Amino acid sequence: MLSTKTRIAESFYGSFIDGHMVDEGTNRTFDSINPANGEVITSIQAGGKSEVDDAVASAKAAFPAWRDLPGVEKGRIFLKIAEKIKENTERLVYLESLDNGKTRMDAQFDVMTSARYFEYYAGLADKLAGETIPLGDTHISYTRSEPFGVTAHIVPWNAAFQQAARGVAPALLAGNTAVVKPAEDTSITTIELARIAVEAGLPAGVFNVVTGLGRDAGAALVSHPDVGRVTFTGSVPTGQEIMRASAENLNPLTLELGGKSPNIIFEDAKLEDAIRGAFFAININAGQVCAAGSRLLVHSSVHDQVVDKLVEMNSQIKLGPGTDAASQMGAITTAAQFEKIQEYLEIGRNEGAEVAVGGSRATGENLDAGRFIQPTIFVNVQNSMRIAQEEIFGPVLSVIRFDTEEEAVQIANDTRYGLTAGVWTQNLGRAHRMAARIQAGQVNVNDYFAGGVQAPFGGFKQSGYGREKGVHAVSEYLQTKTVSMKL
């Protein structure tokens, strides 16, 4: 067990600018709250325009040297960052569980995935190249891939550590420098990541973090004239605001804006695998996952069997503080999200859906002081209901019957979102047909969360645009220059 001093590495967390964290002298702070018990974890600096200006200036100053550093050297630094993340796994897992409310298993996955991002992009660091274009014997033409300069990253609260790494690693690999604005509810581990990176040899100013509220620090960052590119993960309304702010500087964007993803179980599926996959797809991180399989489409012939088993599995989930190793589902991270989920539980009942299990706030034992929601399954759901159309972002599953493949496709696509989908079938032809016809950035067959750090990730429709992860993410942070010359 870690000591109290190690558990909470700092009593104050400030913005991380030019290789160091600002001191505790600021009088503009807010508290970081443990969602499992409502207690104050630490104090966070409420940065604003001044801190953003400093961070962007630091990133801009560091850019030329970092851009010109050979790729092989960037890769070596990335590998050292990955190793240092793994060396600090226990502390980082505890801090992420404490700050976010997620279980130690979920936090462990996030920390190890963050290390994997740096390992993966280290392998690409010396392999970026342009192309030659044939123009005949009299001319030669070729392309150069060049970084934008300073990139801005607005990181969500549901997976702060992992998503900071997911955006920063490919941006830095491409030769950019970065300024990250973490969510105010979960700032701690993003600062820890920046500090680890510098300790591993990343030059000061290449990776900066500004803590603060979105309306202050976030707004100042995305509209800053020296920012060349913006990446945001979060809600559709906030994404639209960021688009408007970025339009002033004509900044390109990567937007990942959530989903209402269909998870489709056909009558010929291996039901044991499909049920386990559906359970995992909605309950991971207490449902606070943009790609969660929150709409479960089940063929009528196996509907009751699937629902009965999921109800049994949900009723056995042990809720508790994320820092408790026995906990299988943690708390809801933010107070606003906690209230929103409870509102949707009431909306579902009022719409005529039936609660098969769960359906309310979880209480008792060590849960009363925290933000815990019973894992919930709604049945008799129509796809037109709000609980089937709107992103709840919690452990709330809407089960919808279907009878034909065509009906499944129609229901799956009848949403403004298009992030992820799951298909469970042993029919290879059907699997390919569904993958082609479903409007989503990712379609997983017989395994819901199948993509690793190598697989591009992003949305269709109002789930956003641009791609993160994999080689595709690097291209988001590069701009193409064509050079042509007469011989």
Low-confidence stretches are 1-7
What amount of the residues lies in strands?
15-25%
Q: Provide the CATH topology of the largest domain.
A: Aldehyde Dehydrogenase, Chain A, domain 1
Q: For the residues shown, what is the average pLDDT?
A: 95
Helix content: 25-40%
CATH architecture label of the largest domain: 3-Layer(aba) Sandwich
Q: Biggest sheet, in brief?
A: 7 strands, mixed
Tell me the strand order in the biggest sheet: 15-16-17-14-13-19-20
Outline = globular
Report, as a whole number of angstroms, the end-to-end distance. Answer: 69 Å
Q: What's the gyration radius in Å?
A: 23 Å
Class of the largest domain, according to the CATH hierarchy? Alpha Beta
Tell me the number of structural domains.
2
**Can you say what the CATH homologous superfamily of the largest domain is?**
Aldehyde Dehydrogenase, Chain A, domain 1
Task: Tell me the number of strands.
Answer: 23
Question: Helix/strand-derived class?
Answer: alpha/beta
Specify the number of helices. 16
